[in-house]
Each structure stands twice: as structure tokens, then as C-alpha cells.
Write a structure and sequence with these properties.
By secondary structure, the chain is of the alpha+beta class. It has one domain: Nucleoside Triphosphate Pyrophosphohydrolase, CATH 3.90.79.10. The chain has helices at residues 32-40, 110-122, 174-177, 218-232, and strands spanning 15-18, 63-74, 77-85, 96-97, 100-102, 129-134, 138-139, 144-153, 166-173, 184-190, 193-199, 202-205, 211-214. Strands 2, 3, 4, 5, 6, 7, 8 and 9 form an eight-stranded mixed beta sheet that branches. Strands 1-10-11 form a three-stranded antiparallel beta sheet. The protein has a two-stranded antiparallel ribbon with strand order 12-13. The longest helix is centred in the last third of the chain and has 15 residues, at 218-232. The radius of gyration is 17 Å and the shape is globular. The chain starts with 14 loop residues before the first strand and ends with a helix.
Length: 233
């Protein structure tokens, strides 16, 4: 099987637009109570981005996977817990991701996969996690069919990162991510196909306390954009 093409430096892909014409989700819709209510009484809506585009890995059967979209209930508002993957991994090295991974035969469902993978990757015990719903499947170019499981997380946790897979974990304000003025569109051509992706660069304190840029892009940014559409519907 031929080697799949990879975007080595997403920063270098041209920005073709910024979505500052779209309204931000109002602050009163981003409280834990409001987000829970939205999942309890789901509106009519359509995900904006169903996947990365045409799959490259057509020799591989689609594989079920789940990620957790952890909304940490901080005193100053909901924060999204994300991870930066280690640089030596074969897939998605150095990328910003939700905790999660492929389903195993012993997982009861997509929620079980998301909770198990999150506990394995970052040490977030499920006792702190209150699952409130899920977003539609997202299909990657590498043939993963991903279920984003959304949960409210009590902040009294201590993380224990799997150092092989996760370089660091950090939090981004949900309000920032639900403001399309921070959503940038990139376009490029690969193997004769026109493709595009979103990015949501975030500057926050790194592990050493110094400012650091976290380049949120690709599937993670796309699933966050679908969450925006869901909360804004």
C-alpha cells in the first residue's frame, strides 16, 4: 500500500478566508446549564463539515473511533480540554487533538470508547465526566469514522498523561472557539484534489508558563466548527 500524503506544516498552507462575518455564540448559551439543555432539546441542524473529504486510504476498511469533547466547568467559564500529541507518533504527530481513539471489541458503545481512551491518554477518570450527548460522525481521510462525545467535566481532577502519546494537555475557553472570527480557512491541492481545512490558533501559557501558540486545525477544528453550528442553531 502506498504511503499516504501528509501535511507536514499546516501553518504554511495559505489562509483564504476568516469567518468574522458569522456571529459568535452568545455567552449565555455557553454555560453548563445552557449546553446541557441544548443537547436535551436538540434543534434542527445540519453539520457543516462531515469529514476531511475524499478518503485517501481506500484499501482500509472504515474503523470506528471516538473522541471526548471535554468541557471543563471553570469558575470563569467552560474550557475545552485538548491535547498535543507527541512528535514521534506515526499518525498525527505533534497535532492538537481531543483525547480519544479507535473502538475496541470490549467497548459497549462510542461513549465507552471515548471514556476509556481519555482515561488511558490523560488520566481523566470517568467519575469526573458527565456525558451530555454526541455530535454526528466525522470521517477522516484515513478511514476513521469518529464519534465526538460531549461531556461536562468537574474541575477537581488531576491529569496523568501517557507520555508516549501525549506531550501536554491544555484548556482553551469555549467562548474563543465558538467565535468564528477566530476560524481561518486554508485551501490547497493534494494528489489532484482541491482540499481545505479550518484552523483556530490559540495563544496560551505553555508547560513552562511562557506564551505558546497551539495550532488547532484539521479534524479537531472541524468538529469544533460543527459544535459551533449546533450551539448556534
Amino acid at each position: 500500500m502506498s504511503k499516504l500524503p501528509r501535511i507536514v506544516d499546516p501553518h504554511a498552507i495559505p489562509v483564504v478566508g476568516i469567518d468574522d462575518h458569522l456571529p459568535a455564540v452568545a455567552a449565555d448559551l455557553l454555560t453548563p446549564q445552557a449546553v446541557r439543555r441544548r443537547f436535551e432539546a436538540r434543534p434542527e441542524w445540519t453539520p457543516e463539515i462531515a469529514g476531511d473529504g475524499k478518503r485517501f486510504n481506500l484499501d482500509r476498511e472504515p474503523t470506528a473511533a471516538s473522541v471526548l469533547v471535554p468541557l471543563v466547568m471553570r469558575d470563569d467559564g467552560l474550557k475545552v480540554l485538548l491535547t498535543r500529541r507527541t512528535d514521534h507518533l506515526r499518525d498525527h504527530a505533534g497535532q492538537i487533538s481531543f483525547p480519544g481513539g479507535r473502538a475496541e471489541e470490549h467497548d459497549d458503545d462510542a461513549v465507552a470508547t471515548a471514556l476509556r481512551e481519555t482515561e488511558e491518554e490523560v488520566g481523566l477518570h470517568r467519575a469526573h465526566v458527565d456525558v451530555i450527548g454526541a455530535l454526528p460522525h466525522y470521517t477522516t481521510v484515513t478511514s476513521y469514522i469518529v464519534t465526538p462525545v460531549v461531556a461536562l467535566v468537574r474541575p477537581d481532577f488531576t491529569l496523568a498523561l501517557d507520555g508516549f502519546e501525549v506531550a501536554e494537555a491544555f484548556e482553551v475557553p469555549l467562548q474563543f472557539l465558538m467565535t468564528p472570527a477566530h476560524h481561518r480557512r486554508h485551501a490547497f491541492e493534494m494528489l489532484g484534489q482541491q482540499r481545505q481545512f479550518l484552523s483556530m490558533p490559540w495563544r496560551g501559557a505553555g508547560p513552562d508558563g511562557e506564551p505558546s501558540e497551539y495550532f488547532i486545525w484539521g479534524a479537531t477544528a472541524a468538529m469544533l466548527r460543527n459544535l459551533y453550528r449546533f450551539l448556534a442553531a
